[in-house]
Amino acid sequence: MSWGLSNRLNRVLPGLASGTGSVMFAIDHGYFMGPTTGLEDPKKTIVPLLPHGDSLMLTRGILKSCIPKECKLPIVLRVSSGNSILNDDMSNEKLCVSTEDAIRLNASAVAFSIYVGAEYEHQTLVEFSKLINEAHRYGIPVLAVTAVGKNMDRDLRYLSLASRIAAELGADMIKTYYCEDFSRLVNVCHVPVVIAGGKKIPEADALQLAHNAISDGAAGVDMGRNIFQAESPSDMIQAVRSVVVEGVSPEDAYKNYKSSLR
């Protein structure tokens, strides 16, 4: 691993150096979901939360139009796209943003979705491999966002399959879902793993999810809807951070979160 790639990876996931978890804030949902609830006005929602994240995962359109130019938060740029929620099969994605454009936007890492067991599995894996070749030429780390076929359970068998394939192809970090026996998935990946927050769940459950993931070896969390769709997004991202980075129990973090709402 080159110094530049290693440096960028540690900026995106600072917990790798400190021995704690890291908080990646995901707001890339609009690339296939459109005006997602809570992100109708991205600038209004996002800017107050920036001081509490370690890195920000988003699309180039939102980066250009909604993120202040003085923002020092490391950017994880979504570079795959090609589908919308109107499609029955969400796996028909390709590489749609060049590494050169990612560099022009000062991205610290790039993110690409692979779909294992889906109709376009081969396409996404080959496109992902091409991205690895190109991004690593410039020392840019690559985050593999793993997904499995719509008829497959998000369990250890399939998530570890997708995650290990991503690692084998050269991913520098992996985003996947939390599952039972998650520590076994972490052990077979050999690169940092962050968990996806997924759909909105009650705040107490989201904090417990974050705690469980870090306890089982995750390098961090990449949460979106469970932060920006919370009753108080600013208080929620701080609660998540207290669990992931500071080691606060999920029960105490939730009590603090509820107290802040009064």
Q: What does this 3D model show about the protein?
A:
The chain has 262 residues and is α/β, with parallel strands linked by helices. It has one domain: Aldolase class I (TIM Barrel, Alpha-Beta Barrel), CATH 3.20.20. 43% of the residues lie in helices and 17% in strands. The protein has 13 helices and 10 strands. The protein has helices spanning 3-12, 15-18, 30-33, 42-46, 60-66, 99-104, 121-137, 156-169, 182-187, 203-215, 225-228, 233-244, 250-260; strands at 22-26, 55-58, 75-78, 80-81, 94-95, 109-116, 142-148, 173-176, 193-196, 220-223. α10 packs parallel to α12, α10 (203-215) packs antiparallel against α13 and α12 runs antiparallel to α13 (250-260).
Keywords:
43% helix, two-stranded antiparallel sheet, 262 residues, 8-stranded parallel beta barrel, alpha/beta, TIM Barrel
**What is the CATH-assigned architecture?**
Alpha-Beta Barrel
Order of helices and strands: HHEHHEHEEEHEHEHEHEHEHHH
As a percent range, the share of strand residues is: 15-25%
Evaluate the radius of gyration.
Answer: 17 Å
Work out the count of structural domains: 1
Output the CATH topology: TIM Barrel
Query: Roughly how many Å apart are the termini?
Result: 48 Å
CATH superfamily (homologous) name: Aldolase class I
Mean pLDDT: 95
Work out the helicity level.
40-55%
* Number of helical elements: 13
> Low-confidence segments, ≥5 residues, pLDDT <50?
none
What structural class is derived from the secondary structure elements?
Answer: alpha/beta
Profile the largest sheet: 8 strands, parallel, barrel
**Widest sheet: strand ordering:** 1-2-3-6-7-8-9-10
Question: What oligomeric state do these chains adopt?
Answer: single chain
- Indicate the CATH class: Alpha Beta
Number of strand segments? 10
Q: Which word captures the global form?
A: globular
